[in-house]
Specification:
Layout (H helix, E strand, L loop, with lengths): L4 H21 L4 H8 L3 H9 L6 H10 L4 H5 L12 H4 L1
Length: 91
């Protein structure tokens, strides 16, 4: 069975969003993050664009540079059924 290219595209977009959000939350520029992770600024730009995959070792270096678990960068968003509901919605 061949892999679904759309699934890979969605995954790249998810990772891109997590990296960008974490970087901005930490007030880091793309260049600052690249320097801290030991990767090129071009790598960070490509990753955040969601148009490019990245080697796992580079993604791990980026997670380490932001002092966060790698799993936070690669987790898929919860589906609506998995998201916690507040009391108002349950009543």
């Amino acid at each position: 069975m061949l892999p679904d290219p759309a699934r890979y595209d969605r995954f790249h977009q998810v990772v891109a969003g997590h990296v960008r959000d974490a970087r901005l939350w930490r007030n880091l520029s793309q260049e600052d993050l690249a320097h801290a992770a030991g990767v090129s600024p071009r790598t960070v730009v490509a990753l955040e664009s969601g148009r490019s995959g990245i080697l796992l070792d580079k993604l791990l270096a980026i997670a380490d540079a932001m002092q966060m678990p790698l799993t936070d960068l690669v987790r898929e968003p919860a589906t609506e059924a998995e998201q916690p509901r507040d009391d108002a919605q349950q009543a």
